[in-house]
Design goal:
Elements (H helix, E strand, L loop, with lengths): L10 E3 L8 H8 L6 E8 H6 L2 H5 L8 E6 L3 H14 L3 E6 L4 H5 L10 H14 L4 E6 L8 H13 L4 E5 L21 H10 L4 E5 L5 H6 L6 E4 L2 H4 L7 H4 L10 H6 L2 H8 L5 H5 L12 H11 L7 H19 L1
Parallel strand pairs: 1-2, 1-8, 2-3, 3-4, 4-5, 5-6, 6-7, 7-8
Helix pairs in contact: 4-6, 6-7, 15-16
Length: 333
């Protein structure tokens, strides 16, 4: 079934390997209720053959949640799509943007931009299997195949298979010679190619990704495109998310303070601590909550030096808050 009217997610938080886990999503959800959150990319074969509860479980409090899949086998992806729809995910995204050598060796990720008909087969198979939206995240090109015309041809072919939303990282990927980290900032941003894509395909939902780190930059993307995906800024300055609902969606709910965000996760911390999840694996997502603010160093130091202790719980977080407040007070007087 083709979904022709995906929900109006103006902002989404990118799938980030080794970061976009369920704890990250829970914390982000304390700051933005309306934005779309993603899982890390999960290999389709891992879902078929692996520990599904470990890979797929999430809290209803995290919704809406999109799962990003990696793979190139239409039948396997269709099977996975049905599994994750039944698991409760709101959306499925196919990764056609990751340039890592490991991903390339499996013939998925960014290298699939050179195989638009293969991607179209995958999208068609998943759309046949589920009733939730199936989307694609891709680059503007790869290696020397990076003309606007080549990207537009890719989108045209994949859209004909039923994809209605494209998340476009506005950089090309070098499949050889650059690491995944380098591919996130060395190839130049080409926003105009993404804007042109929206003009040429007005019936599609086009979401832009890459280098967008402030509310002002997010706002500047509308109405040139339909949505904005932010990534590393959610790690480096997570409190940005606290203003998204009000500034972008027009919600009138008061913006929580940083301290209120932290307070909102304390019971969550203890819930998982009782299940032998170490504090640092949760609070690493809030180490930068005071980025650019007084006392951020003492906050981070207390959590990082003590969060590995299996006995650490919400009390340690309260201690870190108290130490920060004391530091600020003493510096004033």
């Amino acid at each position: 079934m083709v979904i022709t009217s995906p929900p109006p997610y103006l902002v989404s938080v990118a799938p980030m390997m080794d970061y976009s886990d369920r704890h990250f999503r829970y914390i982000m959800r304390q700051m933005t209720k309306k934005s779309l959150l993603y899982t890390e990319m999960i290999n389709s074969q891992a879902i078929i053959h692996g520990d599904r509860p470990k890979l797929l479980n999430f809290s209803p409090a995290e919704k809406p949640v999109a799962i990003q899949l990696g793979g190139d086998n239409p039948q396997q992806l269709a099977e996975c799509a049905k599994i994750v729809e039944d698991w409760g995910y709101d959306e499925i995204n196919l990764n056609v943007g990751c340039p890592s050598a490991r991903v390339q060796s499996g013939n998925f990720g960014a290298c699939l931009m050179a195989q638009p008909h293969k991607v179209a087969q995958c999208i068609a198979a998943m759309n046949q299997a589920v009733n939730i939206p199936v989307t694609v995240k891709h680059r503007i090109g790869i290696d020397d195949q990076d003309s606007y015309e080549q990207m537009a041809n890719f989108v045209k072919i994949v859209a004909q298979a039923g994809c209605q939303r494209f998340v476009v990282h506005a950089r090309k990927a070098w499949l050889q010679g650059l690491s995944p980290k380098e591919n996130r900032h060395i190839p130049p941003l080409r926003y105009e190619d993404v804007y042109r894509l929206k003009r040429d395909f007005p019936h599609l939902i086009i979401e832009i990704n890459g280098g967008i780190t402030t509310l002002e930059q997010i706002k500047a993307q509308f109405p040139l495109v339909d949505g904005v995906m932010i990534g590393r800024v959610a790690c480096d300055n997570p409190y940005l998310l606290a203003s998204i609902d009000q500034e972008i969606y027009g919600d009138d709910t008061p913006i929580p303070t940083r301290e209120e965000v932290i307070e909102s996760v304390l019971d969550y911390v203890d819930f998982w601590g009782d299940r032998h999840v170490k504090l640092n694996s949760i609070m690493r997502h809030l180490l930068q909550i005071f980025a650019g603010q007084p006392g951020t160093k003492i906050w981070k130091r207390h959590l990082t030096e003590n969060g590995y202790n299996p006995e650490a719980n919400s009390q340690l977080v309260r201690e870190a808050l108290a130490l920060r407040e004391s530091k600020i007070t003493n510096s004033i007087y």
